[in-house]
Amino acid sequence: MDDLSKALDKAVDFHRRGNLAQAEQLYLQLLEAKSDHFDGLQMLGILRFQQGRFPEALALIAAALKTNPNVPPVLLNYGLVLEALRRREEALASYDKALAIQPDYAEGFYNRGIVLRGLQRPAEALASFDTALSIKPDYAEAHYNRGNALQDLKRPAEALASYDRALAIRPDTAEVLHDRGNALQALQRPADALASYDKALTIKPGHVGALNNRGLALLGLHRHAEALASFERALVVRPDDARALNNRGNTLQELKRPAEALASYERALAIRPDYAEAFYNRGVVLKSLQRPTEALASFDQVLSIQPGHVDALNNRGVVLRNLNRPLDALASYDRVLSIDPGHVEALNNRASALRDLKRPAEALAIIDQALAIQPDHADTLCNRGIALRDLKRPGEAFASFEAALAMQPGHRYAFAGMAYAALAICDWARTAIIAGELEARVAQRNSIIPPFTLLGYGSDPSVQLECAKWTIESETPVIEQPLWKGAPRRDDKLKIAYLSTDFRRHPVASLIAELIELHDRARFEVVGISYGPDDQSALRERLVRAFDQFHDVRSQNDHDVAQLLNHMQVDIAIDLSGRTQDSRLGILAHRPAPIQATYLGYAGTTGAGFIDYVIADRTVLPFEQQPFYTERIVHLPECYQANDSTREITAVTPTRREAELPDEGFVFCCFNNNFKITQPVFDVWMRLLRAIEGSVLWLSQDNVEAKENLREAAAARGVDPARLIFARRVERDDEHLARHRLADLFVDTLPYNAHATASDALWAGLPLLTCRGASFAGRVATSLLYAAGLPELATNDLGEYEALALRLATDASLLGGLRRRLAQNRTTCPLFDTDRFRRHIENAYTTMWELQRRGENPRSFSVEPVR
Known about the structure:
Blueprint: H1 3-16, H2 20-33, H3 38-50, H4 54-67, H5 72-84, H6 88-101, H7 106-118, H8 122-135, H9 140-152, H10 156-169, H11 174-186, H12 190-203, H13 208-220, H14 224-237, H15 242-254, H16 258-271, H17 276-288, H18 292-305, H19 310-322, H20 326-339, H21 344-356, H22 360-373, H23 378-390, H24 394-407, H25 414-424, H26 428-444, H27 451-457, H28 461-475, E1 494-500, H29 507-518, E2 524-530, H30 538-546, E3 549-552, H31 558-567, E4 572-575, H32 586-589, E5 595-598, E6 613-617, E7 632-636, E8 667-670, H33 679-691, E9 696-700, H34 704-716, E10 724-727, H35 733-738, E11 745-747, H36 756-763, E12 768-771, H37 780-788, E13 794-795, H38 798-810, H39 812-825, H40 834-853, E14 861-862
Parallel strand pairs: 1-2, 1-4, 2-3, 4-5, 5-6, 6-7, 7-14, 8-9, 8-11, 9-10, 11-12, 12-13
């Protein structure tokens, strides 16, 4: 053996034993002696490859191949270096050249498969691994990577079999056990996957991938605390592992620790600024924390990295809806659907945005499209119910809500939808069943039930309070930094802001218009904040003129509206919507004003800790009810309800025939919404019809199903259904008031009285009979009657109510006397003395302000009547 061969053998021996420094020195000496020494070049190339010095390795092996271009192992090594340099196509060509020389070269086919996987050509990679195994059946690495190629091809069951064959040859290989766990995860076998990861970790305790994926398996098993511990172990090994930080954040979300989850995502993004999934998860947690503007920015970051990320686009739409930007939300959902036309959640969300835009018919069409794809999608079925409700088709709505609840018994909204729809169609068999469940569902907090719906069921005040508090907690953000910082404001005139969705042709607007006009501008500046539609009505125009400032904020989010109020230095913010549909208590959740109160639009507690006062009177809301209200109760004298004493009534009264009433006979009237009609009251009405020959009951026509159900109920009680007359809607308020002249007696509902409807009747000169209820909603008509000078028409129970109705229907002189007294009182009674009322409510505002200025907490109080 010559000296060069001896030097090579010695260098290779050092190399094999891991003494790379001495091996390197000998290789260099060898090449100094003979610069084109084939083995010296290729072996030093291998050593440089092991040192991570890839360009030098490539040059050395290329030089060796110039000396002898047809040696398959050297071509293989050349391919390995090219692959390390991400020059995969050239690596593939080098492997193919080796295989052309040696067709039975198993390692060549194996490496060829590896590079094909890197080129994202898994089917060809699989074929290459199969060829390697046909040559060398016990090739453990080929079985393992064959499994990886099958995973790439979404064939996890076959991948699992390949991993098991690899492990049969080499049982204690951590990487194979790890990837086997991944296949089991893909097969939705998290318990088996966990066992595989645990075995990998007994071999290699610091295997970060196994710790990470073990955590994911534990998440799949709902073992959240253990999953968190697994991710924490991964981070001990590798503190800058962005994937572990992202997974840790997801686990913290499951553990209801969103602030910590957010911090974990932000740590991941500090390490890896282009980590789309971490931005996505950050957006999700910000959405859950009700920080929609920041969530939107996070989803936009995802889309700057991955423009086609459908989940980010979908959630971006949800956040845009939360920011009151439904048109922009529609555009985001449309981008989802351009990528995935069958995306059911995006279709459903698109329908919700259309509902926001008051386009329920279009929403229904989209919902039906979604249900054609996935008929059992509970959220979509529930949304269908809401769209049908908006379209005044409550019977069909009930069926959709019922189907949603059948698909998902724990659905948070479906039961409430059923509850309201059953009231709306006067289906008392169903309302009786629902009433039995309501209290338990509120107590267990497993359904979101609008407090307004509970009013129709006459629920116990403690249940109403619990329901209101739970829905506020669920739907309204907790604001850690209120806009009003407690600084004193002015000593001159107070700035009052009225907030409503109903500054349009609506009972609230009709009641309050003159009050706004009459406010004392020497003491008050009065601002209107409208977040409802502009119906272009005369009433809308009147209100716009009446306010000192009028702001249409429909397109602004709650925070921006709150900032507007704060920048205007509003002293007292008056919410006129309460817990009615389309209300936006989230504006006041930001505490833009020192004093915040609720008034008129909703007869119950909001359940909101950020609302200081509820404006009422001693009849509708005695101080004894304070334990059931989060707001402090303010009593106005006489009656809490504002009225407009300028409302016109057309001089032309329609004929009975034009109103579809019989030419003769006593007319009992109730123009309340049909959902307020309950079985006990209807039973009284039917007994009255049977007792008074030729009498009829004149009702509002809300929806076809209610009309049919009420007529069927009449027939079941021995009354000709034709004696129920349903009044069509008239567009002009003065004509609606005029037709009250055709009725003889307005008979009220219970547990939810007539409110604005009662004022309509009394203003039109129609006597109204009511029964005092147990809650605010059931005592309004009593308060109105007291203020109108007709206290004897307020009864204490249904027996008294029925007896008095019978007397009035059979004693023309008694009823006539009441009608005359009402006509005499109309222009002088407190109910319709708007300027007197204005002074009362202004005194309430002044008292609230004096308490605040003295640094006192809000407290209940009564306003003394003006003289």
